[in-house]
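Deliverable D5.2: sample structural annotation.
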Amino acid sequence: MESTETNPNPGASAADDINPILREALEEGRPRYFRASGGAARGKSGRRDTERFADELMTLQECAQIIGERLEMHAIAFGVLYDGEETIAFRFDPNSNPSSPELVGGLVNRRMPMRELLAGLNHFLYES
C-alpha cells in the first residue's frame, strides 16, 4: 500500500520528511528497535520503518518455525537474518504470556555481529 502523505514544505526533499530517529540511525549504522505482539509492531523510527520491520519479522519467524520443526526444537527463542548489507533480528520476551508472546526486534542497515545485535535486543528488552 502506497502512502499518500504530503510534504508540508514543498521545497523540501523526501529525505527531509524522514523520521529524525530513523535518519540518525541510518547515518550512524545503529539498530532501530521494535516491540511486537498480537499482530502489531511498535517502534520509534516512523510508521514506514515499523511496517518494514513487521514484514521482515513475519518472514524471519516463518523461517525460524520451519527450522525449529525440522530440528524438533519446536519454539525458537531468537533469530537473526543477514540480507545483503542489512541485519534483522528478533528475540522473544521470556517474561511475556506464553499464549500471547511478545518479542523485541531490531533492524540495522549494515552487517552487524549477531552477538552485538542480540546484546542490544536484551538491553532494549529490559530497559523498557
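Annotation notes: The chain has three helices and five strands. Confidence is low (pLDDT under 50) at residues 1-13.
The annotation will be released with the project's public dataset once the embargo ends.
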